[in-house]
Input
Amino acid sequence: MARVDVEIERCKGCALCVDACPEQVLKIGKEINLGGYQHVIVANPDDCTGCCRCAEMCPDVALAVWR
Amino acid sequence: MARVDVEIERCKGCALCVDACPEQVLKIGKEINLGGYQHVIVANPDDCTGCCRCAEMCPDVALAVWR
Amino acid sequence: MSSPKKVFTKGNEAIAMAAINAGCRYYFGYPITPQNEIPEYMAEHLPATGGEFLQAESEIASINMLIGAAATGVRVMTSSSGPGISLMQEGFSYFAGNELPAVVVNISRQGPGLGGINATQGDYFQSVKGGGHGDYKLIVLAPHTGQELYDLTIKAFELAEKYRILTLILGDAILGQIKEPIVPWIPEKTAGDPDRDWLITGAKGREPRLIKSLFLADGEMEKHCWHLQEKYERIERDDVMLEEVDTADADLIVVAFGSVARIVKSAISQAREAGLKVGLVRPITLFPFPRKRLFELGGRTKHFLVAEMNTGQMVEDVKLSLPGDCQVEFYGRPGGSVPTPEDLYSIVSENCEKLQA
Amino acid sequence: MSSPKKVFTKGNEAIAMAAINAGCRYYFGYPITPQNEIPEYMAEHLPATGGEFLQAESEIASINMLIGAAATGVRVMTSSSGPGISLMQEGFSYFAGNELPAVVVNISRQGPGLGGINATQGDYFQSVKGGGHGDYKLIVLAPHTGQELYDLTIKAFELAEKYRILTLILGDAILGQIKEPIVPWIPEKTAGDPDRDWLITGAKGREPRLIKSLFLADGEMEKHCWHLQEKYERIERDDVMLEEVDTADADLIVVAFGSVARIVKSAISQAREAGLKVGLVRPITLFPFPRKRLFELGGRTKHFLVAEMNTGQMVEDVKLSLPGDCQVEFYGRPGGSVPTPEDLYSIVSENCEKLQA
Amino acid sequence: MKQVFKRPESMTSKPFHFCPGCHHGIVHRLVAEALDHFSLREKTIGVASVGCSVFLYDYFAVDVIESPHGRAAAVAAGTKRVLNDRIVFTYQGDGDLAAIGTAEVIHAANRGDNITIIFVNNSIYGMTGGQMAPTTLLGQRSTTSPYGRDCDRDGYPIKMTEMLAELEGPSLVSRVAVNTPGNVKKARKVIRQAFQMQVEGKGFSFVEVLSTCPTNWGMTPQAANDRIAEEMIPYFPLGTLKQKDVVDVL
Amino acid sequence: MKQVFKRPESMTSKPFHFCPGCHHGIVHRLVAEALDHFSLREKTIGVASVGCSVFLYDYFAVDVIESPHGRAAAVAAGTKRVLNDRIVFTYQGDGDLAAIGTAEVIHAANRGDNITIIFVNNSIYGMTGGQMAPTTLLGQRSTTSPYGRDCDRDGYPIKMTEMLAELEGPSLVSRVAVNTPGNVKKARKVIRQAFQMQVEGKGFSFVEVLSTCPTNWGMTPQAANDRIAEEMIPYFPLGTLKQKDVVDVL
Amino acid sequence: MYNDVIMAGFGGQGIMVIGNLLAYAAIVEDKNVTFLPSYGVEMRGGTANCSVVIDERDIGSPIVGRPMSLIIMNRPSLIKFEPRMKPGGVVILNKTLISPDVSERDDIDLLALDLNAIAEASAGNVRLANMVALGAYVEKSGVVAVASVSAALKDALNPKYHKMIPANQKAIEAGAAAARG
Amino acid sequence: MYNDVIMAGFGGQGIMVIGNLLAYAAIVEDKNVTFLPSYGVEMRGGTANCSVVIDERDIGSPIVGRPMSLIIMNRPSLIKFEPRMKPGGVVILNKTLISPDVSERDDIDLLALDLNAIAEASAGNVRLANMVALGAYVEKSGVVAVASVSAALKDALNPKYHKMIPANQKAIEAGAAAARG
Ligand SMILES: Cc1ncc(C[n+]2csc(CCOP(=O)(O)OP(=O)(O)O)c2C)c(N)n1
Ligand SMILES: Cc1ncc(C[n+]2csc(CCOP(=O)(O)OP(=O)(O)O)c2C)c(N)n1
Ligand code: SF4
Ligand code: SF4
Ligand code: SF4
Ligand code: SF4
Output
């Protein structure tokens, strides 16, 4: 059981987390946040292993991981 | 046949040439030049081999060597 | 474009373009906002002229590379802003002592300290009183439009060469960043005389030459300082530039330079429409300062208002210029806050009211 | 020695000794003649106080080390001369923006450029008008004897702390090199208040603090500049220092600072002996300049003579201070030529003659 | 479930102003984590430099002094000489440290000043809009090398880490990258070691972090991230060139 | 008899102002000999630095520009960029080059500026009266290290030659001494090579010359000369650390 | 006739592009013009804005203290600039990102458009929302002819984007049409 | 009574030492004094000189424009300073290195002494020629008592030279004796 949370208003949609996740849990969504960015969304929450690779790569500390 | 000449007014009496000369040709004299220095003199002119070691060491380019 | 000779150009680019057209072939500089378009333009266009753009490791390196290049007699330039110009002050002083010609551009920004990139005129004192050590002056030119940035850059190279002096173009973030249509032109003379008798070129078939600022013999340095002083006096006599607007009948004369002068122009035309007799004196050369003309004007008009984007710097030179019976008011906005035409209009009309009272 | 409390001391050493006695425990500096006795004294004596002397790799490093140390609230100092002080101008501007307290000594020498090591007063403008970028001021103290070098060094630390400002001691080669008997003393307070709410000490049990000079929010930088301005006005109100000699009945008042003032004193006593009514105003603080007092004096005495070892710098501040109907003459010797008492006596008496005519 | 990844305590909650995908954010976090690791927040003083990282103070919950451009090492030296029981670090870009600040960093290193320097090498001037840095790669275009960096005119990209490792003073000199989760982990370890050196009074520690500037490289964040492995690391090899004895901290 | 040793033609006849026994005079002569060797006098531009050698222009019969303290390499770079067919050299002391001028020399080297730098390392500030230099040896007393240089406070004597040899730009980086007739001969050869590099357009050449300062070392000229072999060379080893292809010139 | 406008939005929304384009359009009509960009913290984050002043006479101040018109692409910009507006001024508001309710002035002429949608619909590219806004502004204010804006595209755009001129023109026209109502 | 003197010679001739010593002698007599050294080019070559001003009253200028007295140890110094002298002034001249014929003034009181010889003879050390000169000057001018100079030696000299105080005293005395004629 693991979970990744996105702090949407911190996300700038750089997609480094998307590339880093070995399980394709994350993807860039269609929505725009207040900063004007298309932010990341947790597309496949169930596949998350809590490995933290996404969070390690997130330049904006927008991700939190539970395990 | 070799000769070393001292340009007296350039000499500051540092004696580096005296130390450099393997033949003890040069020594610091008693006279004081216009700059106030006790300058070097050619004490044993006949022993000069014209090897130029003195001149190489003279910081004030006060020596000329003939051979 | 309908008017074929007009080019819509950013202020910084106007300077760079003018420099190249004035024959400047070497540029040494270090990045700093808000003047980066100058080195960037130079980097793009100098190579094609056979010249060279070199990015220095710092402003200190820039100004010293400028010394090395200026000594050869070519037209050279650097540019920077506040903090970078401060770092060049030792170099400025050496330029003065060495009597070398070159052009430096200061697209000034907020200060003191790191400040920010908005426009101010807080570097007036540094420019005209000498931020470096010793008794010296630079020629300081203060353009107020894109076209004038272009024209005065060309003038700067000419004056630098005429007097063997560092010439500073004092702009600000507004002037550097603004885009306006300008008409470029090419001056007749785009290089210094190659026969000047002080150029450092290698002592081929002549006596060795020396560029220095250390004079040790008794009284020699004093002589050198008076020689410089005499040169500065010649500059004050021959090369003052200013613009006057509606001064002939003015009850109040505003004195302002650079971008503020431009904003003042808007305020003044509003004031004239409102029937207020207001004029403008805009010093174009900050050194030499238009002392004589101000003194003349002060014979007739007794009220002056100095407007600057700082807490009061040029106002001192205005006071020093005017007859003792003139009254000088000051309006200032420091730290990057730019007065609007409305601000200036209201301060002008306030002053006029006081006059009537 | 017959008078036990007197110490025969070189000016530079008087400064260093006073600094240590004022609680200065850290010194960062780079060698330059004619002030080397200051770092040398510090290198010898600071270790025993538990403090530290560190020779920096350059004047730029010195002034920046000073920033880092001043931010912790300890008493710190650096010293240099002309070229080195020029290199510190960016740092000076940061000190102003950051509002940090520290003491800098300029034992000035010939300029512009490399100049030489003789005394001048060519750095007056740099000191009082701000050689760095932006609108700012330093407190500038101008001692004229060994004892005063000592006393004003102590004062400099106090003022720096009182206002969170960089305080500059402007001496020259004469003052730095001269040896005189002085009486050392120790002030009561030799350290700043450890509870000042801006000290950078690590955010233990409190909110983190910040020393900065970049203010980005709309209008914030302008506010900061006006805040600084307000502080400068307070300083002008509360901390002007000057010396007056024989001004009460003077027909001619000489204005001079530092070592020139001292030479003027000889000339004036000669003049008084010759029956000439000559007085002296000696600004001790160059910023704040004794404007108010000069204005008052200008109500009675209408003729002033400014004597400086430069081509005319303080003379501008004198003119700006005096009522419009005063006449101000200037006598200057730039480039390291020091006027003798005889020179000054003859210029003083010439001026008195003109007055009579 | 336990939270296994969260914002370090030495960081504030303020969102970064950095451009999307800029590695500065990762490096900030790693530094904050190192401070957390040794519980240093309350005794740390950061020295901010001039560059995109100038707003350090908004993101670190520590005392901060803003340094003039290039002079952070001198400012830090001044602070540390007075408060030698505090932890003092600088955070500098490649324009700041490898150009205008060359002398200051070399002499701080040579003196063995007991401070830590985090050197973010993104091979360009970020804040000022993409001018050539001393570290710009050969052929790389920038606004002041519009035809690509030319070694005949501009010289070779400078390797600060290699140069500093030549000196006696430093206790740790290392180059890391943060372009993959694995490299981030290695970088975390080295940055920790750097602070440990300071904690143990071993003298000057220096970590160069290869970093992206998607904005001024004219690349997407992803392409910029890829460039680190493709172009930066081959020229600027990763690894620790100098290290005094240290207990492993990971 | 033929004159086998005489003043080089690139030198003027003015007697040096240097103190008795100061090696500056020997180094001046060797540089002038190198100019003579390649017949460069009429196309050479010297850049004088601030230090005891500031009066370069009195002794060399070449055009000279006086540089601000520490900035000779930048001044020379400016000159050379314009007049790239002239020979440009700087002559700098260890205060000038290894302290205040650190950044300028490193970046001139890194750019591979086609200039020659003669670096006279006498481990002290001569002109200003004997303060500690970055090259002052550990334990050495100077007016600003009255208790001897302390590596904890002041760091280790800096080895500029070793540091510069790390860079790509230079064509020649070497350290020589002039304390014995034999070393003078070697130094002559290396200084010639340095100018040859420039003549051949090979880029930045740098020669460090270990040198005495009897006055500020508080020694007789002879004792000072001996100190070179006893203390200086062991810490600053002689030799060429970097050299691009060159035809032997001796 | 004197006219001024401040345009503001996120960096990346093409504010500078339309400011520049409007200036070129003024040049097409042989008018005097000043274009003054102003950034937040150099380039990162923050908002970008620019001022354009157009006049037949010489232009005094390029600084616009109390704007006659605004093009507002994001919320912070509305909050910053609306209070300074002259009464009766024209505002083009990007309804895609800001609700018109945020506006606090009732003495101005506010036109809220779903710029992204119009851009998508007219030119098939949301990134041309800026052009839609400019078209609407020009139409509403009459400061220059819409045709002049279209004509200026080749001067204002980098040649490498010239192939996008037709799409830009469509977006501008669509903006103008929306402004006509 | 006001008194001033300029002392000048080669660096290394001990000019600063005797200037300093004279100042200490003045302090012994509780007088005010300023001692101003001035070098040529920093330390190398050139000549060294210093000015000492002694007075019972506060001292104004430490700069001596027209000296009342001179101690001259080498030829360049005579050429430099002699023309500036006040008429009637006292000059102690180092005859060992300069012939009195070089002097061009006939309105001064010139005492040419073979200082080196006197130093050698009295103290067995030519290096004390400076002390001989000072002794002669003090005796001739009366600015301070010769005894005060001797008494000041321990303050003025670095402790490591204190063992040489007797030799110095002898040289000073010998100079004074020479001046008495
Ligand atoms: C003395 C001085 N010169 C120049 C500048 C302008 N400036 C600000 S940041 C910077 C460099 C930014 O590049 P870098 O250090 O690589 O940091 P980055 O922004 O890439 O993180 C420059 C040149 C300045 N502020 N001060
Ligand atoms: C900006 C500046 N700082 C300091 C000085 C003072 N200064 C003159 S020469 C010198 C250093 C001399 O030492 P070095 O370079 O080793 O040469 P040397 O005299 O030993 O040959 C210094 C610090 C100066 N002239 N300018
Ligand atoms: S924690 Fe691992 S698995 Fe989960 S989203 Fe992040 S990278 Fe993917
Ligand atoms: S790495 Fe961070 S900022 Fe980038 S898309 Fe993922 S969550 Fe957003
Ligand atoms: S400009 Fe470059 S370095 Fe700066 S924040 Fe943006 S991506 Fe990062
Ligand atoms: S002080 Fe030293 S370096 Fe300078 S000339 Fe004298 S011996 Fe040579």
User: Anything to note?
Assistant: Chain D has 13 helices and 15 strands.
